[in-house]
Amino acid sequence: MVVLIFVAVALVIGAAVDAAPNLKTRQSITTLSSSQISAYTPYSWYASAGYCAASTTQTWTCGSNCEANSGFQPVASGGDGDSTQYWFVGYDPSLDTVIVSHQGTDPSEILPLISDADIKKTTLDSTLFPGISSSIEVHSGFADAQAKAATDVLAAVETTLSTYNTTTVTTVGHSLGAAISLLDLVYLPLHLPSGLTYQMFGYGLPRVGNQAFADYIDANLPITHINNEEDPIPILPGMFLGFVHPSGEVHIEDSGSWDACPGQDNSSKLCIVGDVPEIWDGDESDHDGPYGPVEMGC
Ligand SMILES: *[C@@H]1O[C@H](CO)[C@@H](O)[C@H](O)[C@H]1NC(C)=O
Ligand SMILES: *[C@@H]1O[C@H](CO)[C@@H](O)[C@H](O)[C@H]1NC(C)=O
């Protein structure tokens, strides 16, 4: 009996000691290698191409943003660049994924949306987001922007999946476009067959929803949100208003190195929350990049 208890205790201690170093590795801030950084480049160009007029992404003749991913097979484009952000959907053969991209906006247009002290949060629409918990709340302006193109984007993704027989869906976007693409990432799996893989690459992403929203993303959907130097957009809307970023932050330092920041809203100075504590510490000109070789815009 005594021996058994001793063995059991030893096993528990052994497990605890084993777990500790793993936890530490997982949670430390890591600097990305140059090959890890360049793996983001095609997605950065797709996010930038989101700014191009639908007529030019439909034919994939949008200039340097399109030429950077010359193998892309466009399927559908939409939006008017005014009341509805431009968007496009298609297939990348070398990445073997559906790409969904939404247009962003410049700091002067997005700042009023996200720095207002009485920003409205809303639950997700139960027709677009069937079964989603009512504890999840998001910025109502972002929800409205996503709803405008949602069903057209879904139809285009379904066409792309069947035409190109792929099983991966990738959403991308910069600024407001990143917020819409994050909501698309939640929306699409609720309507598509199971067994698909999802990922999202966002650039200069503002905070989109509350703690329950960030936790839902962390539990279900892998995302990477890259922010550049002292860009103030990713620190808005403020945490004091109940907005929380999901995990997956990559922060581009002034030195040019890219650091992966573990957790939600990591307060280290190597991550955006520590680097830009207040909006007046920010520099709006950092919002568009560059993210590697890509300065966002068309
Ligand atoms: C589609 O891809 C799957 C593997 O992912 C394969 O088994 C199937 O044969 C493919 N279908 C067509 C029509 O190419
Ligand atoms: C922030 O990163 C550090 C590693 O430097 C880690 O120990 C800490 O847990 C992270 N914070 C959060 C909120 O995850």
UniProtKB/TrEMBL annotation:
Pfam (any one): Lipase_3
GO molecular function: hydrolase activity
GO BP terms, alphabetized: lipid metabolic process
This protein's name: Alpha/beta-hydrolase
Enzymatic reactions: a diacylglycerol + H2O = a monoacylglycerol + a fatty acid + H(+); a monoacylglycerol + H2O = glycerol + a fatty acid + H(+)
Signal peptide positions on this chain: 1-19
Protein family per UniProt: Belongs to the AB hydrolase superfamily. Lipase family. Class 3 subfamily.
Domain of life: Eukaryota
Domain Fungal lipase-type: 100-239
PANTHER family according to UniProt: ALPHA/BETA-HYDROLASES SUPERFAMILY PROTEIN, FUNGAL LIPASE-LIKE DOMAIN-CONTAINING PROTEIN
Record keywords, A-Z: Disulfide bond, Hydrolase, Signal
InterPro entries xref list: AB_hydrolase_fold, Fungal_lipase-type, Sec_MonoDiacylglyc_Lipase
